[in-house]
Design brief:
Helix content: 25-40%
Number of strands: 24
Structural class: alpha/beta
Distance between the termini: 67 Å
CATH topology of the largest domain: Rossmann fold
Number of helices: 17
Largest sheet: 6 strands, mixed
Shape: globular
Strand content: 15-25%
Radius of gyration: 24 Å
């Protein structure tokens, strides 16, 4: 028997889940709340709404229509927030361009996404100059200036951002349309092949926003986001919508602080001067902030910090806690919009020792509302939630990308069996906590067993001389592979400790922590820095390739 659909009264409003609906609450309860850029420019949510309307009017004046793609090249700014809303609210598609990619990769993403208009900060003129002649679909450029640009422009601009907004009407009539309309697209920063385009609809972004707000707001104390928080992103707005948190912060009417380019001293001063209480970043940024001298004289005790992108080690969690920072893991990926789980602590867990707390904060966390997260075997059969049965992490939720842009083959692989395959392996315990033990491509196959590079990294990171560590597998005639730890030392420890000392320290801990016994085969190599992707993640593929050539 077919399901029975609800009846619609002709006068009833169907309320499509469109991004514009996220603006109702802040304009009702916090119209005078502040949004600031680098601690300088300041305006209210009321002005934000006017500027969103002006931007849409300006883009329409340049010929932008529904379904066309507007690309944004800027650092984290109030302008980016305006694009997050204005472009998709028009029915157009916002492409957030990863400005840290090479010019050749940026050219590929603009052509592959079939961008029509590019908004570009003058700081990125050299990139545009290098690729302008090879752009296939871009017909218009808009200039963004934080300061007067130097030298002649590389292309003919159709106007400067602020001048266009000043001349445009704030009263753009944003229409209703299908909530499944494409809203955004951006490109993964994976370490293999060309970047892959992922895309999200209005419905997906709204549901991700609601679920994230529910998950963060449901925490009793630790990791809780509420209306009196002050938000500042420290993961790029070009990467997975800055983890979707600007949409959450706007919907809740929070004070928002946009830092521009990430400079540790600037970030710490903004935390101090603007009263920032909620942010998110990758472990690399957290490390840079913790070692900066200014962090030692600033009160960071009100700062809540989601750590994602790479694994948060227990050692780093303890270091952050020692400074008063409420650091905890968030898990997801480009294809998942991104947040799937958060490592929030119960009230009882907050009474535990720092060491016990750090172990929980470094876990991958419990699923957010509406997330169906499982660990499965090679036949896609769900494994027991016993905290030890290891398999691939697969997921379903309303906001997962439905595929890769213009790439049916890769899309089919992503969604094999009707489940999105993360490429991560891990286990789930009886309390529902997921623990990622490695990426499938990074697991080390030693002596016929899988050895987790992440678990060994966590062990090595506990040595007081270690600043950062990455573990990769290297070929070995006897064992197949052996783990190699690439280690950067804290400045005061350079020349004071040996690779042999680090190896012995790790070997003793490995035997007592449940890591595969083959972890004791660890080799250690001191390096000045670790290879990273354009968004700060450890690039183990590049490390393996460099090791093979050495």
């Amino acid at each position: 028997m077919p399901v029975k659909l609800i009846e619609h009264t002709p006068e009833a409003y169907a309320y499509p889940l469109l991004i514009k609906q996220l603006l109702h609450t802040p304009l009702a309860i916090a119209p005078e709340q502040e949004i600031t850029y680098m601690g300088g420019r300041r305006h209210t949510y009321r002005v934000l709404r006017e500027r969103i309307g002006r931007l849409a009017s300006a883009l329409a004046g340049l010929g932008v229509e529904a379904g066309e793609t507007v690309a944004m090249m800027d650092w984290d700014s109030h302008r980016y927030l305006e694009c997050f809303f204005a472009v998709p609210m028009m029915g157009a598609i916002l492409q957030t361009v990863n400005v840290r990619l090479s010019p050749e990769q940026i050219l590929y993403t603009l052509n592959h996404a079939r961008a029509d208009v590019v908004l570009v900060n003058a700081e990125f003129w050299p990139i545009i100059a290098a690729i302008a002649g090879k752009l296939e679909t871009v017909r218009r450029f808009v200039l963004i200036e934080d300061a007067p640009a130097e030298g002649p422009p590389p292309v003919d601009f159709d106007g400067e951002y602020e001048a266009l907004l000043a001349a445009a009407s704030p009263d753009y009539a944003f229409p209703d349309f299908d909530e499944n309309a494409k809203a955004t697209t951006f490109y993964t920063t994976g370490t293999t092949g060309l970047p892959k385009g992922v895309y999200f609809s209005h419905r997906q972004l709204v549901l991700h926003t609601l679920a994230t707000a529910a998950a963060l707001g449901n925490a009793p104390v630790q990791g809780r986001l509420h209306r009196e928080d002050v938000y500042m992103p420290i993961t790029p707005m070009f990467h997975v919508h800055a983890w979707g948190l600007p949409y959450v912060a706007t919907m809740l009417g929070l004070k928002q602080v946009y830092p521009g380019r990430y400079v540790p001293e600037t970030l710490l001063k903004l935390v101090r001067d603007e009263g920032v209480t909620f942010s998110h970043c990758v472990p690399t940024i957290l490390h840079m902030l913790l070692v900066h001298p200014l962090s030692k004289v600033i009160d960071l005790s009100r700062w809540k910090l989601i750590i994602g992108g790479s694994a948060l080690s227990q050692a780093q969690a303890r270091a952050a806690m020692a400074r008063g920072i409420d650091a905890f893991t968030g898990y997801g990926m480009s294809e998942t919009c991104p947040i799937l789980s958060l490592a929030q602590l119960s009230g009882a867990a907050l009474a535990a020792s720092p060491e016990e707390q750090a172990a929980l904060r470094a876990k991958t966390g419990i699923p957010m509302p509406l997330v169906d997260l499982r660990v499965v075997d090679e036949n896609l059969a769900e494994l027991p939630r016993d905290g030890c049965s290891v398999g691939e992490v697969v997921v379903r939720s309303p906001w997962l990308t439905q595929g890769y842009l213009h790439d049916a083959e890769a899309s089919a692989g992503l969604w094999q069996g009707g489940l999105l395959h993360t490429g991560d392996i891990g286990h789930i315990d009886a309390a529902g906590y997921l623990q990622i033990t490695d990426r499938i491509k990074d697991v080390i196959k030693t002596g016929g067993e899988w050895t987790s590079s992440l678990q060994i990294e966590d062990v090595v990171a506990r040595h007081p001389a270690v600043a950062e560590v990455a573990v990769i597998g290297v070929p070995d005639e006897k064992w197949g592979e052996r783990p190699l730890a690439k280690v950067t030392l804290k400045p005061a420890s350079v020349g004071q400790v040996t690779e042999h000392e680090i190896r012995n320290f790790a070997a003793r801990l490995i035997e007592s922590t449940g890591v595969s016994r083959y972890g004791v085969l660890l080799q250690v190599q001191f390096v000045e820095g670790l290879a990273r992707t354009s968004v700060g993640k450890l690039n183990k593929r590049a490390m393996r390739e460099a090791q093979e050539k050495s």
